Amino acid sequence: MIGLAREIFKLYSLHLICITKGGNGSLLISKNQVVEHPGVKVEVADTVGAGDAFTACVAHSYVQGCPLEEISESANRLAAWVASQVGATPSISEPQLVEILASGAHCIQSPGFTE
């Protein structure tokens, strides 16, 4: 997969390629770095929305300049949490979100949302 990603970088003006592997984690690949994450083990209730949560976390963290290792940890934690909940958009408070992401991307700024 990494070789294919390198070929894609040659063809397109990309900065990051994300490969998700469901419960087996993910790969984040930049031109200079590969970060593999084994995933976060949870009791799965519903996988709908987990990939969207992963992608949103990656995009939000990436534009803030977070290191790929932190982006990967946060994105995998958030996706795992969503998969452990019923429904594609489970309710979450800001303190819950901060707790889920606490050991991930420390550079993530609070989203500043209200319930």
Protein architecture, described:
With 115 residues, the protein is an alpha+beta fold. It has one domain (2-101): Ribokinase (UDP-N-acetylmuramoyl-L-alanine:D-glutamate ligase, 3-Layer(aba) Sandwich). It is built from four helices and three strands, in the order H-E-E-E-H-H-H. It has helices at 2-11, 50-63, 68-83, 94-101; strands spanning 17-20, 26-29, 34-37. It has a three-stranded antiparallel beta sheet, covered by helices on one side. A hairpin with a 5-residue loop joins strand 1 and strand 2 (26-29). Helix 2 (50-63) packs antiparallel against helix 3 (68-83). It starts with a helix and ends in a 14-residue tail after the last helix. The model has no long low-confidence stretch (mean pLDDT 89).
From the N-terminal CA to the C-terminal CA, the straight-line distance is: 40 Å
Instruction: Please state the structural category.
Output: alpha+beta
Strand order of the largest sheet: 1-2-3
Tally of helical runs: 4
Strand/helix succession: HEEEHHH
The CATH H-level homologous superfamily: Ribokinase
Uncertain spans, ≥5 residues at pLDDT below 50? none
DSSP strand count: 3
Give a quick rundown of the structure.
This protein is of the alpha+beta class. It has helices spanning about 1-10, 50-65, 70-85, 95-100; strands at about 15-20, 25-30, 35.
